[in-house]
């Protein structure tokens, strides 16, 4: 009886070992098949990618031959744009480095172009290209204007008429250029007479060639150049830009007075400009790509205290935040510095800081975001020495819009921080 029992146990054990062996064999076969299939997929995908790239390259050559363009300049980028070597570092150097920044933009927006509603690979809908190649692309989740390498480009804003610059205005934009051994390139801003929008500007009596970040093999320069005279000065390369970093350019003009800022640095200030220019033109010539974003023209730029006294409030378009966040951009410090200084000099002043959004998004989200942004501004001002009791905050969301939510300019007008005197 005991012997029979042991034989049965031994038999079951052999059967179990056989099943395990068979399962392992089946598993091995499945793994082998999976490896084989993966290898085949890689070959197929690689071949497909190579075919697609070859077709893209052939299509590019055909397009360039038809349009008479050099093969070195692509007609359209089919992939998301990324900076050279992936070295985009952003425009911000830290908000604390803007402690002495004094640029305050105008409080009436004339033109706003952030490319947010435009499609990749398309020509910019808000800019008229006079010459050259440029297209809208996405870079790190942001829409930018990509100027093709080895090309010259000029554009003017699309406006209802060509006479849109007032006597007092501000211009802001961000630019990324590259500084290499074989690099040449420049970026120039022209304020000129509108009698001929396609003219180079050199013959205009009001012409001002304003900004040169790079000029071939010369040192970076910045300033003004007028017919027969110039006021350009060499500046350190780390201030001017290069190496794939975003630089924030801010320009203030008031009749014969002009100031130019690169990031937190005020580089030039003059008072001998010829007044009367009424339109804007920007040009670029570079052996490497140039990227531009966040172009904004605004009327005004008055002392904020005058506006507070005359209007009882000040619309602070200079206070900017990261998209859909309550994180202050460093260039916001120009306006914040102005109000902190004002409140320290005028102890009788007290303000409500009102946060406002455009009409995109849900009301709940906009209310929350606008409140958070107003709170952040107050916190920064209190940190800088303003008594907390003199500041209150309120997030209005999109409930107090001052323009329809139907264009880039109108959305920019609605996205604002207001200082309302109490």
UniProtKB/TrEMBL annotation:
Residues 74-91 have a biased composition (Polar residues). Residues 46-73, 410-422 have a biased composition (Basic and acidic residues). Residues 308-422 form the OmpA-like domain. It is found in: Cell outer membrane. It comes from the Bacteria. InterPro entries: Bact_OuterMem_StrucFunc (IPR050330), OMP_bac (IPR006664), OmpA-like (IPR006665), OmpA-like_sf (IPR036737). Gene3D superfamilies: OmpA-like domain (3.30.1330.60). CDD domains: OmpA_C-like. Pfam families: OmpA (PF00691). Residues 46-91, 389-422 are annotated as: Disordered. Residues 398-409 have a biased composition (Low complexity). Residues 1-23 form the signal peptide. Keywords: Cell outer membrane, Membrane, Signal. This is OmpA family protein. It comes from Sphingobacterium faecale.
